Amino acid sequence: MNNLDSIYRNRREKLYDYLNETNLSAAVFEDSEERRDVAVRYLTGHPSDAVLVLLADRTSILIPWDENLAALKAHADKVVPYTEYGRSNTLAVSKTLEQFKGNSNPHVAISPFTSHLLYEKYVAELKGWTVECKENSIHQKVESLRAIKDDYEIECTRKACKITDGMTEQIIRYLSKGTFKTESDVALYVEKELRAHGCEKTSFDTLAAGPQRSFAIHAFPGYTNGSWGTEGLSILDYGVCYEGYASDCTITVARGKLSAQQEKLLELVQKAADECLKLYTPDHCIREAVKKADEIFAEEGLSMPHGLGHGTGLEIHEAPFVSKRTDEQMKFMPGNIITLEPGLYDAKLGGTRLENDVLITPQGNEVLTNSKIFRL
Predict the structure, then answer these.
(1) Reported pTM
(2) Mean pLDDT score, 204-221
(3) 3-state DSSP call for residue 357?
(4) Angle formed by the axes of helices 151-177 and 183-196, nearest 10°
(5) Mode of pairing for the β-strands spanning 107-109 and 26-31
(6) Contacting residues for 179 by C-beta, under 8 A, at least 6 apart
(7) Is the dihedral of CA 12, 16, 19, 25 positive or negative?
(8) pLDDT tens across 110-169, in order?
(9) I need a surface site. Which of 17, 163, 244, 258 has the fewest CB within 10 A?
């Protein structure tokens, strides 16, 4: 068994325990164009388009659309091509479960996000099985496991962040030299450069907003041929995926002579980033950091129109979320990788956001990226 085999098997073992503790005979995870679920990749390494069946007897069966890709990437006990089942997910699951020698009243869990029509197809196909489709199931168990990164996930995220930092440094150099002049210049550089460093894609569509558009939390469209990094406030929000794991950072470029009001926006965002970072530790409840940011902005009669942060991983937004909606008792946990991204936006002044990725450690935290407010 190689290291990756061991990593994925260890993750599945926690779910086998859950199946047996909850008297479930099997669980189905689907990743397709209609129903994306990164749990398939989390549990097998297969990047997309497959059905995964976990059995309580501690067996995993992967049913991929692309069997050649699965041969390169997948880690499962058994791999059966989707084409053997006429490209029918319900038939594939039915035939897979026929081999299960479980109890007299077998139960199978499918995603709580399954449509009612598909649920009815499962019920019709899986005769003799009780099909569970509910919240607080094994699918939510996977989400809770993903919130605490293992060593491999941390290693991949570190790599993504290191690549991102290198690109940010180069972007500022090119901007200073006059090589980059437009939003498209910087966004297309990101697309090209990340692949040169072995990344899969951007973590999300790059947001490059020059002084005329930086007032938007998420500029629409993501970038244009308009100026970027010129006099005023410009924002670049981007990230890369390395082996599936995302970085997410935002820099502000402050160029030329700014008004006192613009300087105040920068000052407040930097202060919020510095003060809230002190609260990103296992000793603090998540809502404490949110409250601190709100207090800093409220002193100047301002408020932040979005959450303070979110987990990153195989998805760009995943648990835990640093917002007012988070449970008051929830604390930061060692192994969380969470963004810290205070921001302020004004239709006339422009906007500023400062975002870094933070690993929560037993002793406190480690900032994985080196995003800044750059002054030119």
Answers:
(1) 0.94
(2) 97
(3) strand
(4) 140
(5) parallel
(6) 185
(7) positive
(8) 999 999 999 999 999 998 899 999 998 999 999 999 999 999 999 999 999 999 999 999
(9) 17
d(CA 46, CA 52): 10
CB of 112 closer than 8 Å to CB of 143:
no
Asked if 247 contacts 240 with a C-beta cutoff of 8 angstroms, the reply is: yes
The pLDDT score that the predictor gives to residue 2 is 66
Over residues 219-238, the mean pLDDT reads: 98
Q: Which two tokens stand for residue 295?
A: 């207090």
Contacts of residue 185, defined as CB under 8 A and 6 or more positions apart, other chains included, come to: 174, 179, 228
247-260: per-residue pLDDT in tens? Answer: 999 999 999 999 99
Lookup: tokens for 331: 């604390």
Please say whether the beta carbons of 146 and 42 come within 8 A. yes
The H or E element that residue 280 is part of is none
CB of 8 within 8 A of CB of 44? yes
Check if the beta carbon of residue 338 is closer than 8 Å to that of residue 215.
no
H/E stretch holding 61: strand 59-64
Residues with Cβ within 8 Å of 121's Cβ and at least 6 positions away in sequence, in order, are: 90
Query: What average pLDDT does the structure give for the chain?
Result: 96
- Edge to edge, what strands does the sheet with 207-209 contain? 207-209, 232-238, 249-255, 373-375
Which helix (H) or strand (E) is 162 found in, with range?
helix 151-177
Spatial distance between the Cα atoms of 45 and 4, rounded to a whole number of angstroms: 8
pLDDT of residue 102: 61
Q: Which two three-digit tokens encode residue 137?
A: 């199931």
In sequence order, what are the beta bridge partners of 30?
51
Between CA 240 and CA 247 the distance in angstroms is: 5
